[in-house]
Amino acid sequence: MANGGVCLSCSALVCALVFLTVDGDFVDITYVASAVAKGAVCLDGSPPAYHLARGFGSGVNSWLVHFEGGGWCSNVTTCLQRKRTRLGSSKQMAKQIAFSGILSNTPDYNPDFYNWNKVKVRYCDGSSFTGDVEKVDPATKLHYRGARVWQAVMDDLLAKGMNSANNALISGCSAGGLTSILHCDRFRDLFPVDTKVKCLSDAGFFINEKDIAGVEYIVAFFNGVATTHGSAKNLPSACTSRLSPGMCFFPQNEVKQIQTPLFILNAAYDSWQVRNILVPGFADPHGKWHSCKHDIDQCPASQLQILQGFRDDFLKALKEQGTPSTRGLFINSCFVHCQSETQETWFASGSPMLETKTIADAVGDWFYDRNPFQKIDCPYPCDSTCHNRIYDDPSEA
After folding, report:
1. Which letter, b or e, does each residue of 84-116 get, where b requires 16 or more Cβ atoms within 10 Å of its Cβ?
2. Which pLDDT score, from 0 to 100, does residue 393 have?
3. What span, in angstroms and rounded, lies between the C-alpha atoms of 113 and 198?
């Protein structure tokens, strides 16, 4: 980064200001206090929240609604743990957050969406906004109300001008990327037929893959999420009419039925999926995968072969959904999770590219119908533009 040399000798405050010019402006939090009366609350009963940066110029009637990621909780124990954090309580959320990448307000960093109304919806329900259980256990005081939170936030944004949108894009990272898939058509239904509405999922295409011990762990996990949160009635009925609710958290069982144009941005070696679906800690009790999960460049040939098999399964699950002309694809061969929120991977000098296009270029071309974009990268390690994630702690999830 060009400012790196300056910051070596600057104070902490000046450093923060220097990096702010690159990483984005800070945006205040908005609490949806009116949602509490509707029972549309976080796990701990606190109101839902979002951050809104108002659009300007030609973007004043365009809206980007981006959903925060953060995994899921699948039982009372894990939901209680989340309840005490920002992922379960708006009381624990930062009052301001930096907007960068797809949320940046600078044309040099975000050429197609910089002047839109940009919203980051905070994630505090643990179900990708699908839960709705009326009863609250007096012992735990846990509220499973993600679907109500989604509706309350949408209602609040519509009342603040989103109902007049000419363009609207729902997006999200990780569990938020799954949210943008699960709620894609529901988001489309909020707008008049002449509004251009599309959906972008970043690192949200989680696949149904056995772990290295041959256990279907992730299926059992999503079954737990669906049961705990009462998600069945809020998952797409085209899936739940055929499969169990837990299976309907896998986009490979959803995407074919989605009518709204959808762009899937994902790494074929998604680092979260490798570390938590393919090689969860309990499937590697002796830590043989620690170095490989820490840094893909440290994987021996035998483990890299397994990762290539994961890529094959990922691409198979993706291709089985078909590729209609309205679908966008940017599938690179990087070891990373989420690429739209970070400036260096969204749009910057040295950003990841497929066939000369950055992620921002590809998404912008697709949204505005300038050019279709459906590209899948060659296998690792062929892509020199990747920003592969290196984990400081090999056991970090």
Report:
1. eebbbbbebbeeebbbbbbbbbbeebbebbbbb
2. 60
3. 13
Q: Pick left, alpha or beta for residue 73 (phi over 0 → left; psi -120 to 50 → alpha; otherwise beta).
A: beta
Short-list 71, 73, 87, 233, CA closest to 148 = 233
Average pLDDT estimate for 65-93: 98
E strand map for 12-113: 26-31, 49-53, 62-67, 96-98
- The structural domains of the chain, with segments of one domain joined by +, span 25-376
Distance of alpha carbon 168 from alpha carbon 387, whole angstroms: 29
Q: Give the model confidence (pLDDT) of 307-341 as tens digits.
A: 999 999 999 999 998 889 999 999 999 999 999 99
The 8-class DSSP code of residue 76 comes to H
Identity of the amino acid at 272:
W
Query: Annotated catalytic sites, by residue?
Result: 174, 270, 337
Q: What are phi and psi of 284, to 5 degrees?
A: -135, 60
Q: Say what the pLDDT of residue 394 is.
A: 40
Cis bond upstream, residue 381 (ω within 30): yes
Which tokens in the block code for residue 323? 């590729």
What is the rounded average pLDDT for all residues in the chain? 93
Question: How far is 46 from 38, CA to CA, in rounded Å?
Answer: 12
Q: Does pTM surpass 0.85?
A: yes
DSSP assigned state of 281:
G
Q: How confident is the model at residue 24 (pLDDT cuts 50, 70, 90)?
A: low
**Residue whose token pair is 């969406």:** 113
The architecture CATH gives domain 25-376: 3-Layer(aba) Sandwich (3.40)
Q: What would the DSSP string read from start to end of 99-120?
A: --GGG---TTT-TTTTTSEEEE
Question: Other C-beta atoms within 10 Å of 259: how many?
Answer: 11
Residue 13 confidence class, pLDDT cut points 50, 70, 90 = very low
The dihedrals phi and psi of 96, each to the nearest 5 degrees, come to -140, 145
